């Protein structure tokens, strides 16, 4: 962005891991948001606005359902596009859960997390999914690849390619053993790079260095 590279220090976002340590509660989530028993749950969370790409996720839903008939989608969040998205959603397959204060619980109850954003910085929802030990399928935009290691902690697909998004979601949703491996790897990557404590130490280090230079 025009700054001097040697004068920039990167401190990655971090989140508190504690809300994500509770065991998953799919039954409780079904009761709250109306998903049927036996559902394979794809969760996506974010503002319902164009840059978040929820319309692109909806285009991928039919391909996922063809591959995995038990697939259902839970979209958490509010925004100006909600009405349009609800009208475009596959009937009976997508639940719009609105603004939520229990996203950690939803992520822990997910089988898979989808991040269909057209643009991103370093998205917190991908970090939160890693804290919940859930693999993410995302478009390869912004700094998403710093969180989602393709083929290890989730999958990255080309920006805007809804066919690839549908194929990838379906293939991973149909492979529980691979999802579990990716989820464990995501948790390890989170603990190494994206905890709130690590972020706080990074900021403290910058302040301390500046104060030392100032005498």
Description:
With 215 residues, this protein is of the alpha/beta class. 44% of the residues lie in helices and 13% in strands. It contains nine helices and six strands; from the N terminus they run αβαβαβαβαβαβααα. Strands 3-2-1-4-5-6 form a six-stranded parallel β-sheet, sandwiched between helices. The mean pLDDT is 93.
Radius of gyration: 18 Å
Helix content: 40-55%
Count, helices: 9
Task: State the total count of DSSP E strands.
Answer: 6
End-to-end C-alpha gap: 30 Å
Which term fits the overall shape?
globular
- Mean pLDDT, all residues: 93
Strand order across the biggest sheet? 3-2-1-4-5-6
The secondary structure category is: alpha/beta
Uncertain segments are none
* Biggest β-sheet description: 6 strands, parallel
Question: Beta-strand percentage?
Answer: 5-15%
Order of helices and strands: HEHEHEHEHEHEHHH
């Amino acid at each position: 962005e025009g700054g001097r590279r040697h004068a920039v220090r990167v401190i990655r976002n971090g989140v508190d891991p504690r809300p994500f340590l509770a065991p998953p509660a799919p039954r409780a989530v079904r009761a709250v948001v109306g998903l049927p028993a036996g559902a394979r749950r794809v969760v996506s969370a974010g503002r319902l606005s164009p840059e978040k790409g929820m319309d692109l996720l909806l285009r991928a839903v039919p391909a996922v359902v063809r591959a995995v008939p038990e697939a259902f989608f839970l979209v958490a969040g509010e925004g100006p596009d909600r009405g349009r998205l609800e009208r475009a959603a596959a009937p009976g397959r997508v639940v719009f859960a609105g603004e939520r204060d229990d996203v950690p619980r939803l992520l822990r109850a997910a089988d898979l997390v989808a991040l269909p954003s057209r643009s991103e910085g370093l998205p917190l929802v991908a970090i939160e999914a890693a804290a919940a030990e859930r693999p993410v399928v995302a478009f390869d935009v912004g700094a998403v690849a710093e969180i989602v290691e393709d083929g290890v902690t989730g999958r990255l697909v080309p920006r805007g390619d809804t066919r690839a998004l549908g194929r990838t979601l379906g293939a991973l949703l149909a492979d529980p053993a691979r999802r579990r491996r990716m989820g464990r790897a995501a948790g390890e990557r989170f603990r190494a790079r994206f905890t709130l404590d690590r972020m706080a130490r990074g900021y403290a280090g910058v302040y301390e260095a500046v104060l030392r230079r100032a005498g």
